[in-house]
Amino acid sequence: MKSKPYLKWTAISIGSAVAIAHIGVLGHLLRQQPERTVQIPTINIPRGTPYSSYKIEADKEGYSIEYRANDPKILESQRSLDLDKQSSGFFGNKKSETRSEYRRDEYTMEGVRNMGGVASGDEGKSAKELECIAADAGARSQGAMAGTSIAAGVAVPVASSIPYIGWLASGWALLLGQNLGSEAGSQVNSIISDC
After folding, report:
1. Do the beta carbons of residue 96 and residue 154 sit within 8 Å?
2. Are 99 and 80 contacting, i.e. CB atoms less than 8 angstroms apart?
3. Residue 137 lies in a domain
């Protein structure tokens, strides 16, 4: 009995298909992906001053950064001094001196010391600047009084003789004299006080 040729080719085709399928399944099993790993996010920390602080919170959703420049806002300085001194006097009497000092200061980034109270606007100004501000205020006041009296003696009689608006013009003359006297007093003070 002779085998039919189409059966032979059918068997070879089915066998080849099964062999290729087995190779594919084996390849798939060998190259199986590992479990998905959680990737840690790359965090770009902002660059700031040496006193910057960061607070970073990360979870599956993402991350958040809290950034504070110039933190701490109040800086601290500590100093101590210990002195133990012994000396003999001219007639042989001995003197001894023992001192101990400890100082702790708090100050801001600008170098202003914390005095323990509410900060005022004058902190950080030198004594010369405060003296100049006080002198300028006094000079402006004196100049305004002098300018007003000069305007009252010279400009007001002329301005009050203007018909209908004399009363208004004399008030303007007084205000103008006061403003000019204030500016002149400030300029004279800056020349004299070297401010």
Report:
1. no
2. no
3. yes
Give the pLDDT band of residue 14 (cuts 50, 70, 90).
Answer: very high
Whether 134 is covered by a domain: the verdict is: yes
| Neighbour-count burial of 84, counting CB atoms closer than 10 A to its CB (0-12 exposed, 13-18 middle, 19+ buried) | exposed
Contact of 160 with 170, CB cutoff 8 Å:
yes
Report how many domains make up the chain.
Answer: 3
Residue 62, domain extent: 44-73
Per-residue exposure over 168-189, b if at least 16 CB sit within 10 Å of its own CB, e if not: ebbeebbeebbebbbebbbeeb
Q: What is the 3-state secondary structure (H, E, C) of 137-151?
A: HHHHHHHHHHHHHHH
Tell whether the model's pLDDT for residue 130 goes beyond 70.
yes
| Domain assignment of residue 150, yes or no | yes
Query: Is 28 within a domain?
Result: no
- How far apart are alpha carbons 112 and 104 in whole angstroms? 14
